[in-house]
Every structure is written in C-alpha cells, then in structure tokens.
C-alpha cells in the first residue's frame, strides 16, 4: 500500500494580498516532486484569492469551519461556503483552536462530521501538551482525540491525520524522527484495532511541529510519516525543500 506523501502549509493568521501573491508565485514556478500532494491553508479572507492564483495542481484548505451550513453564527464560515469558493480541504482540531480558542473534542468531532458530509477533505489534528508527554500519557491523549474524530468519519479516504505535539508547534523544538515515528506507529495500531486494517494501512498520518528544511528529510524517511503540516516554514521559500523532502 503506497500512501501519497502529503504536505500542507498552514499559513495561520499571516500574510497580506502582497505577500501571499509572492508566495503563490514562488510555488507556481517551483520545481516540485510530482508524487507529493500539496495543500495551502490560507486565512479565510484570502481563500478565494489563493484558489484563483494558485496553480490548479495544488489544493487549498480553510483553517477552520462551523457545524451548520448557514445562520446566525457571527464570524464563522461553513463547509458550503468553503466549497463555494472552490476550496476542498479544511484543517480541524488544530492545537491553536483547541488551546487558544477552547474548542472541545466534541465540537471538533461535530465539525469533522459536517465537513465530510459536505464534501470537504479534513486534515484532523491531534497532539499532546508538554506536561502530558512528561507525564507519560501521550498515547492516552492522542488515542482519545483520535477516537472522537474516528467516531465521526464514514469515509477515511477524505481524512488525513496530523500528529502535532503541542510542545513542538511554533517553538523551534521539532520532535525527533524517532519520537514522531513512535507515535505514528501507535496511531496506525490504534486504527487497525478500532477502525480496520485497510484504513490503518491507507490513511496518511502527517507530522507537524517546527518542521524545517533542515529537519524534513530525516522525518520523511520514517516508515509511518506520510507528510507534514507546516506552519512557520510554509511562509518561506524553504517550504519547497519540505515538499521535496523525499525527492
Ligand atoms: P510550526 O506550526 O511549523 O510553525 O511549528 C505547525 C502547525 O501549527 O501546524
């Protein structure tokens, strides 16, 4: 079973029309490994601009969405609106949504179900905090987060699981290739036991947390690391090296 390498740049709340335009030009003209699926997660207000300027060979993702198609939910956007802008993916459960905005597992589960029902692919994020790792409960935490996602998924071909240890996000502290591989392997075991062997073998499990041009190659060489979710480095030309990590 070959799993296509998947690299998503998470631009978070960064950029302007000008800088995003420049980034898109860099991507459109770069020499990239054709065996990699590349996705750019733009701020909501720039989704349409990104979709119209980015080469169609790339996908675009929203960074969040709500659980109903429309209505009195000031400030939110729905999967229907995301699709209407020609965008096919959404990141859900990112640690910044969980820990800065207080999103619960239950809400992330509901978002996952609604996004999938409305035809979006979902990059579903999970990951332990530093005290949880130090307390030896990494597995317990990521399994519990994965269960809530799994309970809301019917079609796993539309889901990418992103393991992002919270202590590694935006901190410059990348998990070691061994630490990432260990958790990815455990997650695949969990999927085998709790979903199916076919899903365990086919679902892409990507790593996120301070991935750089310098750390990407060794991480990418790990058996169960099927790509990356990249924050800071996705705004720099270095993102090209990360896409090409396996080339
Ligand atoms: P980082 O962010 O690469 O800047 O650590 C990763 C993420 O939050 O998805």
Give an account of the 3D structure.
InterPro entries: Aldolase_TIM (IPR013785), TIM_sf (IPR035990), TrioseP_Isoase_bac/euk (IPR022896), Triosephosphate_isomerase (IPR000652), Triosephosphate_isomerase_AS (IPR020861). Keywords: Gluconeogenesis, Glycolysis, Isomerase, Lyase. This is Triosephosphate isomerase. Belongs to the triosephosphate isomerase family. The chain has 247 residues and is an alpha/beta fold. The chain has helices spanning 17-29, 47-53, 79-84, 95-99, 105-117, 130-134, 138-150, 177-194, 197-202, 216-220, 238-243; strands at residues 5-10, 36-41, 59-62, 89-92, 121-126, 159-163, 204-208, 227-230. Helix 5 packs parallel to helix 7 and helix 7 (138-150) crosses helix 8 (177-194). The model has no long low-confidence stretch (mean pLDDT 97). Bound molecules: 2-phosphoglycolic acid (PGA). 2-phosphoglycolic acid is lined by residues 10, 164, 169-170, 208-211, 229-233.
Class inferred from helices and paired strands: alpha/beta
Write down the CATH class: Alpha Beta
According to DSSP, the number of beta strands is: 8
The biggest beta sheet reads: 8 strands, parallel, barrel
What is the percent of helical residues? Answer: 25-40%
The assigned CATH architecture is Alpha-Beta Barrel
The average pLDDT score comes to 97
Strand content: 15-25%
Low-pLDDT segments, ≥5 res: none
How much is the radius of gyration in Å? 17 Å
Q: Name the CATH superfamily assignment.
A: Aldolase class I
Alpha plus pi helix count: 11
What name is given to the CATH topology?
TIM Barrel
Order of secondary-structure elements: EHEHEHEHHEHHEHHEHEH
Q: Separation of termini?
A: 19 Å
What's the number of structural domains?
Answer: 1
State the strand order across the main sheet: 1-2-3-4-5-6-7-8
């Amino acid at each position: 079973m070959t799993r296509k390498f998947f690299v998503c740049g998470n631009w978070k709340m960064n950029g302007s029309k000008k800088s995003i335009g420049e980034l898109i030009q860099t991507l459109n003209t770069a020499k990239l490994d054709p065996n990699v699926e590349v996705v750019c997660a733009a701020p909501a207000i720039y989704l349409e601009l990104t979709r119209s300027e980015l080469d169609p060979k790339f996908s675009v993702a929203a960074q969040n969405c709500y659980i109903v198609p429309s209505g009195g939910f000031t400030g939110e956007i729905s999967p229907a609106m995301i699709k209407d802008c020609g965008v096919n993916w959404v990141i859900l459960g990112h640690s910044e949504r969980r820990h800065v905005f207080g999103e619960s597992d239950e809400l992330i589960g509901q978002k996952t179900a609604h996004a999938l029902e409305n035809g979006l692919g979902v990059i579903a994020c999970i990951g332990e905090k530093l005290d949880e790792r130090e307390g030896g409960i990494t597995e317990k935490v990521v399994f519990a987060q994965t269960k809530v996602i799994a309970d809301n998924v019917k079609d796993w071909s539309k889901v990418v699981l992103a393991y992002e240890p919270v202590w590694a996000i935006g901190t410059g502290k990348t998990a070691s290739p061994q630490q990432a591989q260990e958790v990815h392997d455990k997650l695949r075991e969990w999927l085998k036991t709790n979903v199916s062997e076919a899903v365990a073998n086919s679902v892409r499990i990507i790593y996120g947390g301070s991935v750089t041009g310098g750390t990407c190659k060794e991480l990418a060489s790990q058996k169960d690391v099927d790509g990356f979710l990249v924050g800071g480095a996705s705004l720099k030309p270095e993102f090209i090296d990360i896409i090409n990590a396996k080339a």
